[in-house]
Predict the structure.
Amino acid sequence: MTEESTDMTTEAAAVVTCPSCGEVAAPRARYCEACGTSLAPASDGVPAVLGGTGVPGVPAGPAEPVGAVLDLDPDSGEVPAARPCAACGGRVAEDGYCEECGTPAALERDHFEEQPAPWVAGVCDRGVRHVRNEDAMALAAPEDAGRRFAVLVVCDGVSSAPDSDIASLAASRAARDVLAGYGPAGDRSVEGTVTQRIAGWTDALVASSRAAGQAVVEAAEQIAAEQIAAEQIAAEAGGDPVREPPSCTFATAVVDGDLVVAGWIGDSRVYWLADSGHAEQLSVDDSWAQEMIAAGVPRTQAENAPQAHAITRWLGPDAPDSDAHCAATVPAGAGWLLVCSDGLWNYCSAADDMFDLVTRFAGESDGDPLATSAALVRWANDQGGRDNITAALARLAPLG
Amino acid sequence: MADFTAEVFQNEFLSDGATDVHAIVSVTCTGAGTAGGPGTASDGSTAEIIIVDTSGSMQGRNMESAKHAAAVAVDQIADGTWFAIVGGSHVATRVFPYPNARVAMVMMEPGAREEAKRAISHMEPGGGTAISTWLYLADELFATVPQAAQKHAILLTDGKNESEATVALDRVIQKVTGHFQCDARGVGDRWVVEELRKISTALLGTVDLIARPEDIAADFASLVEKSMSRGVSAADLRVWAPQGSQVLFVRQVAPTVEDLTSRRSEVNPLTGAYPTGAWGDESRDYHVAVRVPSKPVGSEQLAARVQLALGTEVVASALVKAKWSDDHSLTTRISPEVAHYTGQAELASVIQEGLAAKAAGDEATATVKLGRAVQLAAETGNEEATSRLRKIVEVENEEEGTVRLKRHTAKLDEMALDTASTKTTRVRKA
């Protein structure tokens, strides 16, 4: 998860240090970025540690928020069948735990996978330390496109705002649906020379990020309406009725024939990892660390600063604008296109390191993008899983 | 229809790197009904054998009291129950049905009851003591009534198993284990607690001391009554533990301490079944300890499913969980139930070890062990154990467990302490 920073100066009154490791937390952060400890105040109703059920004297966690667990198949309206255990693939018993390894069954929202085409897949996971999955992902790869076409969207809910899990999922789906309309089979198909298509997709990405921003605003309004009663109760009880509006990051990659276009707001990333060994981060983080690097501060120093992860742009009601920044490339050969949240890249930031990691897991998975995404998520969990983790991959074969 | 419930008491929070999960699972049975079904008349699904020591040492008051007790027990056996009376010395004799009868066991009815009492009145003491032969005969008799799902025996002796090698008794105990349940009783102070405990533990029964012969009848009556009130003929405790884990132990901790760990039979590679015998309306507590591989802080995992099964049907289930946390206020909390029964189990073993050391003349060890017992009995509020211990030792400081051995103690008091050592008290409600 990522914190947003309203300005670049830190007010003394707003400084919060992590009770566990002493790390200075970004303003309004709900979890410590260093160790994952919850920073939520007691009045929030969230206990200072995960879980907390069954122990006298520890307040139970809040009931599952309204709408937090979304049906992942809204078109059919069907409740997905019970899935095998996310940890070992064993059968999940009726008591909610795996029959083989005892791992609790993941909620649909806590762990989901998509594979719209054999070459496009992604995994979105709660991780280890957070109680909720505020990452979201939406993928599309229509087969009837006539040429190679895929859309990969990843949104990372801002942890200082409650209900960002709802907002991020709404945003990612809205953006995906807009972008699909610009695809070869869509009614606003982007055509022409490479230069023309880059311009067309840049417009499309900005349209999609605005739609995503609008989706967050609408989700916020709906949540606010549902919570009026609850907040009145909280206010009467002396609680803090002021709630942060939900917000999230945005990272998108579009594959259109020979062209790859990336768009982003915040610090979720798009990497292009060519089989030749050429690896690059197509997106440029909208973060405090990136601004410091741009200003000449050494990368390691900037990335290890306490406020390194504070993002400078985001989607949400309080966002100054919702226009994605864009970059495009025409890959020469085969390779992997990766869109991910900081839950993954925090453990493997440099593009060359990411290349090594993805290549290794792809080799172990016979090049299957779903198995490779799952392996990336598992690996991040093994590193501590301090944040939500999303990894979406497209395998680009050489053209003609 | 019997109704089972299972409840878990544990602190599910583990500190970073911790691997051992402890839980007390309390299993309660209600609506068990009576053995063989509703009403008093049984339908032949239960069988009862009374085994009475008829060795030469029983001569006199013991024999007369035992005969009276057996007759009283026969009165308690419900009509429709298969039954037999066995007399035991260095050989075992079928007292009733008469040795020349063509059937090994008969179904109780008023005529059989009168005839059995007549047979009991003719029992004569004589010969030595070879308990293996008694159990062997009982097993043969029970084998003739396979339709009886619930088989129970009462064994009474007054002496040491002196007419045979220990290994002979061990071999027969092993052979008959699982075939029937047996409560063992010793009268007077010349029998050996360890011998009878070996039998009752293997055969899922109880062991107790009857100090005065005139108390045998009341005890027999209550044993038969209890046996007849067990409407559930057999149940297994099942423990599932995850792949890669290790079940450290499974122990019944209330009403008595019985280590079940070695009685495991495999249901599937991850699940073991532990026989618990017949159930009436009652509650039993189990201490389950499982070692799981440590997981990162924040992870949750199921450490054990503890279930009660009647045959293949699971009738109650409880979940033992593990949640790794770095909040010390959660991870350092000790479940009062786990602490209590850990103390009670240790109490049972230090009493037995202390008495064994005392018998062997090792007063130093005896003093330390019994001192620890005094301390544990006080800590866990086991007043019965405290008062029994005070007959054996002078307590200097209960809290620190410092004691002196008494010079002259009655053998009966030591045996009473020994037989009662496995009885536990339940957790005091805070």
